[in-house]
C-alpha cells in the first residue's frame, strides 16, 4: 500500500536571524505569527536532505519521546512541513553554548564543573531510562536556556540519537559522532549503546577542567588510535595540580575502554565527585588555565589547517614541514598514584601546549607561507 503523503501547509512562523547551520539544515530564530512567542526553528531543505529523511524522522521520534520530560533536555514545540522545507520548532536557548558561558565568567571552580556535569548526567540518565542513546554529546551541544546565572543547561541536537529496543538487545554499529568524544567501541564497530554517552561525559569533564580534550591530536587517525587504547594523562601537572583526586578518578571511571566495566549514568551520578561534599573538590580558580589552553588549542588547529592548505598547494621544491615529535615516551606517575603514558617531548600530542610552542609553530607556518608564495611569484616572473 502506498504511503500517505505528508500534509503540506503554510508556515505559521516568521523566521529571523540565523543561529547555526549544518550540512542540510539551518537553525533560525523564529516567532509564531499568532502568539508572538519566540522559538528556534531547524529548517531542513527537502532537496538537500534527499536520502537522509530517516535522520529527520529519527530526530523527531526522539524529541517527541523525551520532550517536556526533563528540565535539561531541549523541548520540541512543533513539527510541520511546507512545500520546500521541514521545520522542527524547539525552545529558544538564549544562554549560549557551555564553553562560551564559562569563558565569560569572572571565575570558575571545580565545583562549577561538577554542577554542569551533574545536570548533563541527570538528562543522560533520563534518556537512558527511556531507551535512548544520544551518541553525540559534546560542549557544542550543551546550551543554556537563558543568559541568567542560574539558567538550566540543555542537551540539544538529537540528530544522531537512536531509540533502542532493550528487549531485543539491539546494538548500534554505525560509526557516528564527533571523533574526539567517541568511545573505542564505536571505532571497533563491535556494537555500542548507552556506555558511549558516559565515555563522552568523561571527555567533556576532562575538557571542562583544563581547556583541552584528552585525545586531542593533529589528525583524526591519531586521535582514534589514542582513543582505542585510552592514551591520555593528567599532564602537564601545572594544569592539574589544583584538580582533586576525586575528579580524576571520575574521569577514569568514564574513560574505561571496556564498556561493560564503565560506569553507568546512574553510577556516575552517585560518584563522590558528583554527589559528595564541595569540600572534597579543588578550590583553585581554573578559569585562567582553561581559557589559556582553549585559546592555544584553537590557535594550533588553525595553524594545522593552514599547513594542510599549503601542502595541497605545493608544487615541487618544498618538502614537508618537519613536526616536533617524541620517539621516547616515558612512564610517569600521576599525583593520584596512577601510572600512565606521558609523551614528554611532543609539541603536537594535544596534552596542553604552551604558548611558546604555539608561537613557534605559527612562525614556521608564516615562513613556509612566505617561501611558498615567493617561490610561486618567482616562477610566474620567469614564465612571463
Automatic annotation (TrEMBL):
The keyword Transmembrane helix does not apply. One of its GO terms (molecular function) is protein serine/threonine kinase activity. Keywords: ATP-binding, Kinase, Nucleotide-binding, Serine/threonine-protein kinase, Transferase. Residues 13-274 form the Protein kinase domain. ATP binds at residue 42. Residues 316-384 are annotated as: Disordered. It comes from the Eukaryota. It holds the Pfam family Pkinase. Gene3D superfamilies: Phosphorylase Kinase, domain 1, Transferase(Phosphotransferase) domain 1. InterPro entries: Kinase-like_dom_sf, Prot_kinase_dom, Protein_kinase_ATP_BS, Ser/Thr_kinase_AS. PANTHER family: SERINE/THREONINE-PROTEIN KINASE. Belongs to the protein kinase superfamily. This is Calcium/calmodulin-dependent protein kinase cmkB.
